[in-house]
């Protein structure tokens, strides 16, 4: 079961954002690629209870699978109200093909993500890029 190791790797050195480097992300990505149904079920049940830095890391990696399970979790991440998680989720969603089932991207999630982005100090052009992408999926 890769979930436990994935959870452990994403949870390492949460106070040192710079620690999350290539080696750790590659290892976590390899674990994610080999997730079975039990691993996905654990991730789906547990991710919301993890620290924000853990969620950011997960959002950066989860799109490697580009399947409905990862799309569903990324869609849920749009509702966290945390700017970094929201941006990472949107950037990961941008990697999905247009033929994906976008039903998980609903109005409430888009509104929450757009409000999070609008409250930020991001430059306006980047805000527009992120929010326009989400709105195009409704």
Summary?
The protein is mainly α and 138 residues long. The protein has eight helices and no strands.
Give a description of the structure.
It comes from Pseudobacteriovorax antillogorgiicola. This is HEAT repeat-containing protein. The protein has 138 residues and is mainly alpha-helical. The chain has one domain. The protein has 8 helices and no strands. The chain has helices at 3-10, 22-33, 37-46, 52-61, 68-77, 83-93, 107-118, 124-136. Helix 1 (3-10) runs antiparallel to helix 2, helix 4 runs parallel beside helix 6 (83-93) and helix 5 runs antiparallel to helix 6. It is globular.
Q: Helix and strand string, N-terminal first?
A: HHHHHHHH
* Gap between N and C termini: 35 Å
Q: Spans of 5+ residues with little confidence (pLDDT < 50)?
A: none
Helix content: 55-70%
Properties at a glance:
mainly alpha; single chain; about 140 residues
Q: What is the fold's blueprint, element by element?
A:
Layout: H1 3-10, H2 22-33, H3 37-46, H4 52-61, H5 68-77, H6 83-93, H7 107-118, H8 124-136
């Amino acid at each position: 079961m890769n979930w436990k190791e994935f959870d452990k790797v994403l949870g390492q050195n949460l106070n040192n954002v710079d620690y999350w480097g290539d080696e750790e992300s590659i290892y976590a990505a390899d674990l994610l690629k080999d997730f079975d149904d039990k691993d996905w079920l654990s991730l789906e049940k547990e991710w919301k209870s993890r620290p924000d830095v853990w969620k950011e890391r997960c959002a950066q990696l989860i799109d490697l699978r580009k399947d409905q399970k990862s799309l569903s979790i990324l869609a849920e991440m749009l509702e966290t109200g945390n700017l970094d998680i929201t941006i990472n989720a949107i950037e990961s969603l941008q990697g999905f093909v247009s033929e994906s089932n976008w039903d998980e991207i609903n109005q409430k999630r888009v509104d929450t993500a757009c409000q999070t982005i609008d409250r930020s100090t991001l430059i306006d052009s980047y805000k527009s890029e992120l929010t326009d992408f989400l709105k195009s999926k409704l």
